[in-house]
Write the structure tokens for this entry.
Amino acid sequence: MTAPSSRPVAPRVVTPRPRRSYPWHTGVVATTFWVGEIFDPTAPDGSQRISTYDARWLAHYGGCDGVVVAGDCRTERRTAANGWFPTAMTPRENPFYLDVPFDDLNDPTGFATRCRVVPWAGDPGYAGRCTDRAFSYLKNRWVRVVGPHGATCYGQVQDAGPGEYHNADYVFGHADQRPVNRRYGGAGMDVSPALNGCLGFRDLDGSDDRVRWQWAEASEVPPGPWTRLVTTTPVTTD
């Protein structure tokens, strides 16, 4: 009986994700927004029932990320007792979400420059999608945020703003540039009610709290209430 021949199997080559150090953005005013909020029905960016990356954000999230009073979706105070999750609904996506003022999908300048300014645009899973209008380089990315009293929390990008949509020097720059936005107290970030509570904000819906923040790789995010329910929903346009 002839022994079966064997061929050497080439080892699988796994391309490692590049390790990089992201700069801190300090002293940034952070305001609060929430899924279902309508803060200006006359403005094109005045509703949080949709986001620039998800035309069905309200449905995908599971409803108003707060409490509904007389048909109005309002925010609520969150506590550590339940991990800063909403008290009146069960979310289907991560309640730890935020935005930064760079829209890499629907802002013409943001879309045209995204592969030049986004640091991870050439990483595995991102490379080669510069002209793909069904793909965002920012949606679902992780951000590390330190609150006004030193609490560190993590959130995922789910929208763009506040007020500006291609502020690349601030969002991706290394010199701690200031946001160009002058509305909402010059805010450079919106955070969700869960992040508002986790970070220890004084205001439930104000513009006096300041944070420092930096981009974070998913592998760097420690377990916490922000990893109980991680959002993976892709870009949705209709």
